[in-house]
Every structure is written in C-alpha cells, then in structure tokens.
Amino acid sequence: MHKKLFKTLAFISALACSFSGYTKNFHLEDIQVRSQGSVNPSKLKDILKGFIGKNISADLLQQIINEVSDYYRENGYPGSLAVIPEQTISRGILNVEVLTPHLNRVIIINDRNYLRKSAEERLFYKLKTLEDNALNLDDISSYLLKLSDLGSFDLKAEFNTDNENYLDNLHINVQPKNKIDFLAFSDNHGTKASGKYRFGGVIKVNSLTSNADNLSLFYARSSQKQNNYSVTYEFPLNSHPTIVGIIICLSDYELGKEYAALGAKGTAQTYEMYLKEPVHRSNETKIDFLLGARYRDLKDEFSNFDLQFNKHSTAAYGTLTFEHKNERFFLSGFAKATLGRLYADDDYNVINDGSFVIGNFGINAGYRFNEVTAVELRNELQLASTALEGSEQFLASGADAVTAYDPSAVSGDCGALSSLSLAISPFKNFDLSFKPHLDAAAVKSRNFKYVDIYGAGLSAELKYHGFFSSLDLSTVIGNKPYKDCDDGQIFFRVGYDFFN
C-alpha cells in the first residue's frame, strides 16, 4: 500500500511540473474508481460529477483523492485511502484506486459450557464470511448488534492490527449473562371486577440448551383470584439471526363486585408461534419484521344460572417495527395486520362468528432539549373490519392508555390514542423522572355511539440498581362517558430485578 501511495504523490508532482510547461488545457472527461470495498456507485458518481469538465491540475487531483477517500470512510471503510496509480491520462479519463483495510480472520472467544460449538458456528457464520475481504465496519457492527439483541450474551469486539501487512484480525469475546434472571412486581393495573391489585414475577433462563435460546416464565395473580400464566421460548435458527418463538398463555378468573352474584368465571388459552427477522441494525436504527399465527380458546361461565359460552379463534399476523435515535431525537413505530376468524362453539348465538381483519399502527416521537428535559408524543390507532370479540378490542383506558380512567371503562372495535408528555430528570446521577402528561382517546364499536375521553396527570419513575417503581396520578378532563366513572385514578407499580 505504501508503495502505491508514494507513486501517487510522485505522479501528482510530475503531473504538476508537466502542466506548467503547457499552455493548452486538458479537461477531465470521466473518473473511474476501483476498490474491493462495496459502496453505492451512483452516489459516488454524483459526488464526483462536479469535477467533470474542469482543467486537470495537481490541485484538482488532490481534491478528487480527498473526496473519494472521505466517501469510503463515511460508508463503512474508515481506513480507506484513494490513490492515483501511474497512468497516462488519455481522452481525459482518470483512474482512481481505493485501498481499504483487509479483514484477515474473525476469532471467537467462547465458553463452550454456555454456548456450544455448533451454536457458535451457526450464529457467527455471517461474520466468518467477511474474512479475507475489505474491512467494512458498518457490516460488522450490524451483525454484532443483531446477535447482541438475542439477549443471551454480551459481545465485546476489538481489532488486532498488523500494520506491516495492513491486515486486521477481529476478536469477539462472547460474555455470558446470568444463567437465570428473576424479576418480581406488584401493581394495581387490573380491573375492579377481575382484581385491581396484582402481584407476580418473571423468570428468564438464558441460553437454556447452550444454543443462545431463551425461556421466560411469567405468573401473576390478582386480588380477585385471577391467575395468568405465560411461557415464552425463543430459538435462533441462523446467523441473521432469524428467531422462532413459541408462546403459551393461560388464565382463569372469577369476577367479583356486581358479577359475583352471577357466578361469573372463565378460562382463556392462547397458543402462538412466530418468526422474527432482524431486517436492519445500525448504531442509530433498528428494523424488525415478525410473522406469526395463534389459536385462542375462550370459555365464560355463569355457574349460578348453569350457562357456559364457548368460542375460539384463529389468526395470522405480520408486524413491522422500527426505532431511530440520536443524541437529541427519538422515533419509533409499528404497523401490524391481523387476519383471523372467530368460531362459536355453543348454540346460544350470542356472538357472530366469522372472519375479521384488524390493522394496528403506532408512532412515538421524542426530542431531548438538554440533560434535564425531553418531550414525547405517543400515537396509536386500531381499525377493524367488523365487530370484535372482547380480547381483540382496542383498550383506550387504564395504566397504558388514558390513565384518568379504569382499565375496563372504555374499549371498542376501532380506536385512537394520543398522549403528550414532558419528561423532567432533575438529577444527573440519580434515575428519577417526572412526567406531566395530557391524554386523549376515542373508540367506536359496531352499533354503538362514538366515545371520546380526555385526561391529565403527573407520573414519576424511579430506578435504583435493581429496584424500580412508578406512580401516576391523573384526573378526568371534560364530560365522562358514563355516570359511574371515577373522577380520576392512581396507578402504581413497584418491583425488583434481582439480577440487574
């Protein structure tokens, strides 16, 4: 590489001397760039077209070298250097060669007790294919971020450079996480009928079979004896890494309050399978696509009247999610399409079985003014083709929506939600934030009138080591849609992550 650089400098110097002896001007007609690095040729051509037609001079050649070098460095090849090999510029055509660092080997440092060899070969295959090629940091960073998102391990990567031969070896240290993580929590995010107060926990087993596969177990119980169980298992199939996931959710309930006299109780079972593909990763942007299918079985019983309603549904769905952030700006969103069918398994004709289509959309935007304050706007929308079963409806109220209303107050087949908040973090070394917020939502169900609700409140969040807590105090704004709605709500959550 150094020989080519010296020849370039000598060529430019000689060219400058030769031009000084001519009165005739030579015009640059074309620039041809060669390199082992892969960049967008049309964008590079657009950058260089400003030089076409100009008189050839040593200054012009140096400007071209700088522009080509900068373009490659900004597009994943930070050590690149454009050079002009010895040549005769005929017909105004200039040849430029770009020298790029070379990736020699990718060396994986791995504890086989945590990640077995077959899993290592499967997951790092894409990175291994970069060996003996031009070193592109964007590609390497993208693969490392995708693998880190598996959540089974941390990755520490560093280069060992051989300056004499201009070769780089990439050393990747696979650092295991805790084999078992445990989180416990308590909140009052439930409904009055099913139990407002809840407690529960999550157990996560990292790299369960030493294949970077993860198992999560969830359990929660409410003050009205409602139980929720969930099992999630994810396994990475390849080096993308495409993930196959399985979710099993079970719940049973006995309704209290005014429903207790009816003997209202029931069960719900959901079985789900999905494929998750990390479409794009960079230090600022993340895009995922998820394709899945589910089966849900629902039973509602009124034991005091010897009534039982049975139904089940099947559905397929696709979800696209994205995130983009930098030092100041944050943007995230999702789009989900669900195609399903509801079946009535009893003879009461209480529900209309048939097909349904649901579209869900969301976008969050935030801007940080400084280390203390930031503003965030959250928007969600649901559209449905027909009347929906209760578990498919849009929830407009509760701790995750308009917080001034009880979770069971407002829902519908179609709905929209918007929330504007100002985050204030007054302490630099203490993770405590306050968020005054304004919330609005509207829902519409088939054969029912349009309902809109508004609220305002103040929330606080505290995190300290593994401890976390949140508190929200909100009040209703405007007219309440129903007479029995409270004037406001207080929501809290408290918990501890034992392996944080």
From TrEMBL:
Record-linked InterPro entries: Hemolysn_activator_HlyB_C (IPR005565), Polypept-transport_assoc_ShlB (IPR013686), TPS_OM_transporter (IPR051544)
| Annotated ranges, domain Polypeptide-transport-associated ShlB-type | 26-99
Q: List the record's Gene Ontology CC terms alphabetically.
A: type V protein secretion system complex
Which keywords does UniProt give here? Cell outer membrane, Membrane, Transmembrane, Transmembrane beta strand
Q: What would you give as a GO molecular function for this chain, any one?
A: protein transmembrane transporter activity
Q: Which Pfam families match?
A: POTRA_2, ShlB
Q: Which Gene3D superfamilies match?
A: membrane protein fhac, membrane protein fhac: a member of the omp85/tpsb transporter family
This protein's source sits in the domain of life called Bacteria
Q: Does the keyword Membrane apply?
A: yes
Domain Haemolysin activator HlyB C-terminal stretches: 170-458
Give the record's GO biological process terms: protein secretion by the type V secretion system
- Its name, as the record gives it, is Outer membrane insertion signal domain protein
Source organism (scientific name)? Succinatimonas hippei (strain DSM 22608 / JCM 16073 / KCTC 15190 / YIT 12066)
